[in-house]
Design brief:
Number of helices: 9
Shape: globular
CATH class: Alpha Beta
Strand content: 15-25%
Distance between the termini: 16 Å
Oligomer: single chain
Helix content: 40-55%
Strand order of the largest sheet: 3-2-1-4-5
Order of helices and strands: EHHHHEHEHEHEHH
CATH topology: Rossmann fold
CATH superfamily: HAD superfamily/HAD-like
Bound molecules: magnesium ion
């Protein structure tokens, strides 16, 4: 089983989105933009794919900025190449690039996806593909709270049966 994190950028990995999103030029925005170190720590053992509604012409500077400021990089990244609404672009990324490469949710390829995602409409889209999605604060709360083992086992057992 390969755990794959579908990581949102705006309002998720970016901790100060509201304060920085309108800064111009883009280089000034990059200088001010900060990334959540606790979130990176929580997902760094998984295979991480950034899927973001941020336009693809801002991809190079953004990815360099993340690397420079955190010392970390995800395994893959997809930026919005169609200027589409977040759930529309992200569904396109799933169907056209991510599923063909890694397989569908809990398929024979062994991929188990989860998402950290701020947009409720995008979370609903992920859910249609069987992908659990939580916003940053809920995700971190869940990661920090030990899950009762007994409560989880029936779910795992069911997944194996079908
Ligand atoms: Mg977001």
């Amino acid at each position: 089983m390969k755990n794959i994190c579908l990581l949102d950028l705006n309002y998720t990995l970016v901790g100060n989105q509201a304060d920085t999103r309108l800064l111009r030029p883009f280089a000034r925005r990059m200088a001010a933009e900060e990334y959540r170190a606790d979130l990176i720590e929580a997902i760094r053992d998984d295979y991480v794919i950034i899927v973001t509604a941020r336009p693809d012409y801002q991809m190079r500077q953004t990815m360099e900025n993340i690397k420079k400021k955190t010392g970390w990089q995800p395994d893959e990244w997809y930026f919005n190449d169609i200027n589409g609404e977040p759930p529309v672009f992200k569904e396109r990324a799933l169907k056209n690039w991510i599923f063909p490469k890694h397989g569908e949710q809990d398929g024979p390829e062994g991929a188990h996806y989860y998402a950290v995602e701020s947009n409720p409409k995008t979370r609903a889209m992920y859910k249609r593909y069987g992908i659990e999605a939580a916003p940053y604060d809920m995700f971190m709360k869940k990661r920090l709270t030990p899950q009762p083992v007994m409560a989880q086992e029936p779910e795992c057992f069911q997944l194996k049966m079908f």
